[in-house]
Fold this sequence. Notes:
- By secondary structure, this protein is an alpha+beta fold.
- It contains twelve helices and 18 strands.
- The longest helix has 23 residues, at about 130-155.
Amino acid sequence: xxxxxxxxxxxxxxxxxxxxxxxxxxxxxxxxxxxxxxxxxxxxxxxxxxxxxxxxxxxxxxxxxxxxxxxxxxxxxxxxxxxxxxxxxxxxxxxxxxxxxxxxxxxxxxxxxxxxxxxxxxxxxxxxxxxxxxxxxxxxxxxxxxxxxxxxxxxxxxxxxxxxxxxxxxxxxxxxxxxxxxxxxxxxxxxxxxxxxxxxxxxxxxxxxxxxxxxxxxxxxxxxxxxxxxxxxxxxxxxxxxxxxxxxxxxxxxxxxxxxxxxxxxxxxxxxxxxxxxxxxxxxxxxxxxxxxxxxxxxxxxxxxxxxxxxxxxxxxxxxxxxxxxxxxxxxxxxxxxxxxxxxxxxxxxxxxxxxxxxxxxxxxxxxxxxxxxxxxxxxxxxxxxxxxxxxxxxxxxxxxxxxxxxxxxxxxxxxxxxxxxxxxxxxxxxxxx
Length: 434
């Protein structure tokens, strides 16, 4: 085999035995007839101590002259070493250079010189070799694993809805148009309409690891044009409170899972994850405006709580010991047609973390007549939503749901300044490659 063990799987039980390891050459230090090579794999690094007299001369020359970031496989004896960083070293018997890296590298892996974001993203395959960058995506995997566990425990069924659609998911205009044979189609902004249709099927709790495609011409540190989320819908609810309880339970489960299972990665990043306490605070839209007015920020009722006001509200809530909190009962005019009305308000909510929106959700309209009225009130044509509306005419239970952004989770949990750090190959206003 090219590899038997990762670097962190080798311990005292392996001393004196033969193992095969593989990875990228991080550094080579030659001292005459001996060379110290630092080999990096997914789990970390290890030291290979190559002795000229113990190896075929051609192998020794090829190994010790290989460029940094070349890929090699090493078969050798594990030996305890107090000087080596892991407490052991490997004395090679056989080395295979699997692929020589070109030089110079377009981007350093262990160099202390910082590269700008564009250089890093243009060479993302190398950027992802850095332990601190890898740590983010190992934690991302854990976040998704935790979400799936939570949903399974709470009797949700995983589904996959279309990403090519015939009309807007939300009634907005920020759509990516694609040619679908003889017709125009669009990339889905969210699985919203489909997951609501699922509530009419009897599969009354569904979730999806969803992709969002939004053609909004922003270019900020908080936005992407292609992003991912946990997207759920659940039926037979009393009101939006049932949905909020599910959401805060999910967030708590994810934070706890990462805190317990990602200590190595958190240490690499120099981060600590504080598990939130339940329940999260609830602040109505009206009360949020009052809190902001007390700090001199006056927002007309019905107006948007913008980025700066959102941050200020986060500071106010933090002063009261609340990092996570819901903003509830938004003005109806500010919410999509499917949000359930209650007078001039909607049974809708946002989940905020320290002034950053993580999730948005609501109880949905389940009465078909009211739903048609709400579509028309938003200036949309109900005929464009015939397939969606049909599902409401033959028995639709009360239901609601939310979308919880995965990149937003990572950005806030790990204190990243730019959301592009939290997705492998970001898509934004100016970037569509690699």
